[in-house]
Specification:
Layout (H helix, E strand, L loop, with lengths): L2 H26 L7 H19 L4 E2 L3 H8 L7 H25 L1 H4 L3 H4 L18 E2 L6 H5 L4 H13 L22 H8 L16 H6 L24 H18 L3 H6 L10 H6 L20 H24 L5 H22 L4 H21 L7 H23 L8
Parallel strand pairs: 1-2
Helix pairs in contact: 1-8, 2-14, 2-15, 4-8, 14-15, 15-16, 16-17
């Protein structure tokens, strides 16, 4: 297994345990910080991102290995100094990539999923992108390459740096005294996730808050201004795959409909949210102007449907680990088909939570592609026991029937 898969396999049980602990503490203190649909969406998003990163799907514009091999000037830094410098430079790069993702239209599509939750809790930390498939972050590691910091250090530090950003996605921890001056804390990050005019586009730092203070993007949390979470153009869905490409689809439509050729090019590189004047007038979209009057997305769901969706999420998690295990010996075509089925599966139960009948279509496609996958595996170098085929087939049929049942019986009582 790769370093990333090993790291994720260790991190996942820790993250899930902390999410459960946070929920129990919130429940004990009669705080509402979790919503089943939102948590299911967040965890499903985490699964899609983890699969994407584990399979190294994407286009590499420039690699750190290339920079290291061509521009390194120093090659004799003691390892302990190299580790410290690598972590600091990784954090510096993270600040600028994060800021770029927020400020430029085309790059916002890479990051919108992380801010799409209208709650703020540990599970929303796992809303990570599957649409950031152009890899150019190594550009910001230029200083490390000059200093001759070896690539293997970043292979280890990068996932550690990412996982260290999990803990501060919570409302349960208040300000932390002198640590507020050094580290990114829950208070700082609540500001970052808020859509209040006073807070928006602030606190991009990932570990050390010093970068925001140096580059003029720091904002303290004000006790008199309660953070309201989400995005200014609400996504209005629990489907993480749709959310990942929602902003991109809007830009594609705007570029198509605008009559100004310059605007067709300009739209991609303008500040986030910019739209051509003619399109903005002819095709208006809902933007939150007053966060305090906005009503959160809340389609009504039966408690039994939520229990079913939690079960479907569990199936997604099992499939993720099966893919991890299979990567080392299964051909790419089979792994890719398995991933497609998993993504269709996630789309199905999250569409179901939206009360969207496309869930049924997803289930039908899932059955057909699953049969095709099982047929290929059966004719591959090894075959699964017969009862495994039967279990998978029966599960797919049951999944379709239950989805049809909930789609045709949209009763909105017995809420959880």
């Amino acid at each position: 297994m790769t370093t990333y898969i090993i790291a994720v396999s260790i991190a996942i049980p820790i993250f899930i345990s902390l999410i459960i602990i946070e929920s129990l503490i919130a429940y004990k203190n009669k705080l509402i910080i979790n919503k089943s649909e939102d948590t299911i969406s967040s965890l499903s998003s985490g699964i899609t991102n983890t699969i994407k990163d584990a399979t190294k799907f994407g286009v590499l514009i420039i690699s750190y290995n290339y920079l290291y091999e061509h521009i390194a000037i120093i090659n004799a830094i003691p390892i302990w100094i190299a580790v410290i410098l690598a972590f600091l430079i990784q954090d510096f790069a993270g600040y600028w990539i994060h800021r770029l993702n927020h400020r430029v239209n085309i790059f916002w599509n890479r990051h919108i999923i992380h801010h799409s939750s209208e709650e703020f809790n540990l599970s929303c930390a796992l809303r990570q992108s599957i649409s950031n498939n152009l890899k150019f972050g190594a550009i910001f590691l230029f200083p490390a390459a000059i200093l001759g910091i070896p690539p293997y250090l970043f292979a280890i530090i990068s996932p550690v740096h990412l996982f260290m950003q999990f803990w501060y996605h919570t409302q349960l921890i208040d300000k932390m005294g002198w640590l507020e001056k050094i580290l990114v804390t829950p208070s700082h990050h609540r500001v970052h996730h808020a859509i209040n005019p006073e807070y928006i586009d602030k606190n991009y730092s990932q570990i050390f808050i010093i970068w925001d203070k140096l580059f003029g993007t720091f904002q303290l949390e004000n006790k008199s201004i309660t953070p309201i979470y989400g995005v200014l153009h609400p996504v209005k869905t629990w489907n993480p795959i749709i959310i990942n490409f929602k902003h991109l689809w809007l830009m594609i439509k705007d570029a198509y409909y605008t009559h100004n050729f310059i605007d067709k090019v300009k739209i991609w590189f303008m500040p986030t949210g910019w739209r051509p004047k003619d399109v903005k007038y002819n095709y208006p979209i809902k933007i939150i102007n007053n966060p305090f009057t906005y009503k959160k997305y809340n389609p009504k769901n039966l408690s039994s449907k939520l229990y079913w969706s939690w079960f479907q999420l569990l199936i997604s998690g099992i499939c993720m680990f099966v893919i991890f295990y299979s990567i080392k010996f299964m051909p790419l075509f089979i792994i890719s088909l398995f991933i497609i089925i998993l993504f269709i599966h996630i789309m199905s139960y999250t569409f179901l939570l939206d009360n969207n009948n496309l869930a049924i279509s997803c289930e039908l496609v899932k059955i057909l592609t699953s049969i095709f996958l099982l047929y290929i595996i059966y004719n591959y170098e090894f075959s699964l026991p017969y009862f495994i085929y039967m279990i998978i087939f029966v599960y797919c049929i049951i999944s379709l029937l239950v989805t049809i049942y909930f789609s045709k019986n949209k009763l909105h009582n017995q809420l959880i």
